[in-house]
Design a protein that fits this description.
TIM Barrel, eight-stranded mixed beta sheet, Urease, subunit C, domain 1, 2 domains, alpha/beta
Length: 465
């Protein structure tokens, strides 16, 4: 061949090494939980932070050819991390790209996809990483569940062209499964983790977790796997557990059977946030370092979309009360909490649903704005196994930053709506360049149809089915 193929354009590529930017004069909330630092300079070289110090300690003239960005009066926080998304159940590339673009321009620089059609998720992750599309960096999981779970329609939607339960990203597991092979297949998708979903006993959950860890993968699990109880999931070694509302099943008097036959919950028992059985569970999570992916605001969103009355709305409101109470209890107990949304893709929203989760944690769960920011950054990075790379404004970390025009520690909800600039891997994305909800009429119809069919695997479908 005489001509080389033309590569795709990468307009959102990470900044190249040697491109130095000096961000000067900001108040920095660094994500560690430390007090905010006024009058601070952040120096970025390419995609890395190389200096963070008081303005008086850094002379911009020392950086030959550097671009100086005056952030006097502005506030800088680390890029936000949505620890629970679903962007390909079923695959819809235009919708996924529009959602991810919206999230990035709203401050989300990293996201954790909690099991989807990884054929598309993997390509979205590649496209985001090299800058073909404007999107957060994506980490993702390959799912494992008991064979009885695979009558769920979502397993077919993410396995088109393959057999649900018999492909590397969506595997049915029982006592006869060759676990080393199953985990190796999951790992071959480039997944960061195995997600343990449903219809598995505690001993098999433990075996999967042990093999995943042996092969260098993380373990992300539903907080209750049915019949495995939350305590068994934690004891099995899950690195994080999802959906705080599922923790109530630790108190079930009888056996848990299947994911789709959850026993009724006495919401009043947990409303005070002082149940002793749950307190013991939180102590175990704290001692083991198990991260809680609370998705705490999920039920309020479901209630608001459930119409004026009826059992679905009442159930959602009860679960909303339980989620707030248990998340607050977890926080008081010292459990690390990351910030996931599990939100259906709604392209009418101009801002990421992650903002709602952060405000919920602040207003309903007793967390200060600084603690919430830490959860949405440092703890989120830990949930990905990426604490060394991201999650705080520190030297050596990736230059993932959000510039706000208002103080997040004074009014978090208001400040999140003042995003001026998002820096991802050193590349600046100005909020003023965001076109707003980008869906065409057809794309919106596709997203609405997906959600109404229970296909997105997100808030209305994943935990609630």
């Amino acid at each position: 061949m005489s001509d080389e193929p033309v590569a795709a354009l990468t307009p959102f590529a990470p900044a190249p090494a040697g491109a130095v930017v000096v961000y000067r004069g900001a108040t920095v909330v660094d994500g560690t939980g430390a007090p905010a630092r006024a009058g601070t300079t952040v120096v970025v070289d390419g995609e890395r932070i190389v200096r963070v110090a008081a303005d008086a300690e850094i002379d911009p003239a020392d950086f030959d050819g550097a671009e100086l960005v005056d952030l006097a009066g502005a506030f800088v926080i680390p890029g936000l991390i949505d620890s629970h998304q679903h962007v390909a159940t079923p695959p819809n590339r235009p919708v996924a790209e529009a959602v991810l673009r919206r999230d990035l321009f709203g401050g989300v620089t990293t996201a954790r996809d909690m099991a989807d059609d990884l054929r598309q998720v993997g390509d979205l992750a590649r496209a985001s990483r090299i800058g073909e599309i404007a999107a957060p960096d994506l980490y993702y999981a390959a799912l494992m569940a008991g064979p009885t779970f695979f009558d769920d329609p979502r397993t077919w939607q993410v396995s088109q062209g393959a057999v649900p339960g018999k492909n590397p990203w969506m595997q049915a597991v029982d006592e006869d499964t060759d676990l080393p092979l199953a985990v190796a297949m999951a790992r071959g998708t480039s997944a960061t983790a195995v997600k343990i979903y449903a219809d598995l006993p505690g001993d098999l959950v433990a075996d999967i977790a042990a093999e995943a860890h042996r092969q260098g993968m993380l373990v992300w699990a539903h907080a209750a796997v049915f019949p495995a109880r939350p305590g068994e999931v934690v004891a099995a070694g899950a690195d994080s557990v999802s959906h705080v509302s599922l923790l109530v099943h630790e108190t079930a008097e009888g056996p848990l059977v299947r994911y789709k036959t959850k026993p009724p919950v006495d919401a009043a028992r947990f409303a005070g946030g002082d149940d002793p059985v749950i307190e013991a569970l939180f102590a175990a999570m704290r001692d083991r370092g198990t991260i809680l992916d609370a998705t705490a605001s999920m039920w309020r969103r479901i209630a608001d979309s459930s119409g004026d009355a009826g059992e679905p709305r009442e159930r959602a409101l009860a679960n909303d009360t339980v989620s707030a109470a248990l998340t607050a209890q977890a926080h008081r107990a010292g459990v690390e909490i990351c910030t996931g949304t599990d939100s259906d893709p709604d392209l009418s929203l101009a801002w990421p649903p992650l903002h709602d989760e952060l405000v919920f944690l602040n207003e309903r769960c007793g967390m200060t704005p600084s603690q919430v920011i830490r959860s949405a950054t440092l703890v989120g990075a830990r949930s990905l196994g990426a604490e060394d790379e991201r999650g705080t404004v520190e030297e050596g970390k990736l230059a993932d930053l959000v510039v706000l025009d208002a103080d997040p520690e004074t009014d978090l909800a208001a400040a999140l709506r003042t995003v001026r600039t998002v820096v991802k891997r050193g590349h600046r994305h100005h909020r003023s360049d965001f076109e707003g909800p980008a869906a065409t009429a057809g794309e919106r119809a596709g997203a609405t149809g997906t959600a109404s069919a229970g296909a997105t695997g997100a808030a209305g479908t994943e935990e609630t089915k």
